[in-house]
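Query form — protein Small conductance mechanosensitive channel

QUESTION: What is the three-dimensional structure of this chain?
INPUT:
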Amino acid sequence: MRYQGRVSLRLPTAVPSWFEEWPSFLRDDVAPKCAAKEGSVCEWVWTETESRWLANAVEWLLAKPIQVLLIIIAAMLVRWVLHRFINGLTSVGNGETDDKPADGDKKKKPKILRPFREKASSALLASGLMTERRAQRASTLGSVLRSVTSIIIFVVAGSTILGLFNINLAPLVASAGIAGVALGFGTQSLVRDYLSGIFMILEDQYGVGDIVDLGEAGGTVENIGLRVTTVRDVRGVVWYIRNGEILRVGNKSQGWAQVVIDVPMPFGTDLEKAHEVLTESAARLTEEDDFKDDLLAPPEVLGVEQMTATGMMLRVTVRTTTASQWRVARELRARISADLDAAGIVSGITPTPAPAPPA
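ANSWER: The structure tokens for Small conductance mechanosensitive channel are given below.
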């Protein structure tokens, strides 16, 4: 070969002369299965060498590892794209804006939460907790979606790789089913916690900043996870409650609240005068600048609610915004007590002494 200014590389088109001197056992008459794929490396090696062993070796050592690598790269690429898409759905900055944001600050609603209805109160919407509530809810849903997509992608990629090596998947699927049943019995409480957490978040039963009653524990919700809900009570104690153990939820921060005050009165009290004093006390509260925004309806004096052997109860009710019912109730009790004393009406039930035993 003379040098002509360029170098050309060509694959051999015929069997090398040294191959004809190989032992006869290296040459086969029956083509391997992999040679049936036109254009494959195995088919090319078989055509050139007629060696079944060499064709299979090249297929296993060169072609299949490259195919496995391509499948893994494709799976990771699809996973990255889907996770990036989910992150865009759960991002707080990529959603719609509230109509009346608090303090002029525009709070964005993540796109993933648009199909779901929110049950937050007006007081929570006006506070700075709404953004955190939405962020935690969107983050939890995003975590579930990312985990589900990763599992599906890796299962499909794994089954495809096993299929390349002609591994029968039926026994593996059966074994996985048996293992899943055994694992389900062992971790059923954990699965129940996660499922309960998912449905609580989807239904927006409560969120960060809500005041809830969860049975043995109650208080302000500080954090919601798929497995555990964190609540801080009025004494500052933090409760960690498994979602699967929550059988009922009393949310005191949704919609509106009702203040109910029962005023004890002894028998013989002028009910008409007492009713008038209670009505005036409640009416003056609605005129106060500090409380008029908390009241959704005028207070009502319902009259005698209960009678016992020692006295009777007069009930006063008022509808308020959520999270303000305790403040309104404390102020209204103080005003009622002061006005009754000023009117000369004795409030409270005086214990009646027991009759003396017969001599």
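ADDITIONAL NOTE: Helices lie at 41-49, 52-90, 122-125, 129-164, 169-186, 188-203, 271-286, 325-342.
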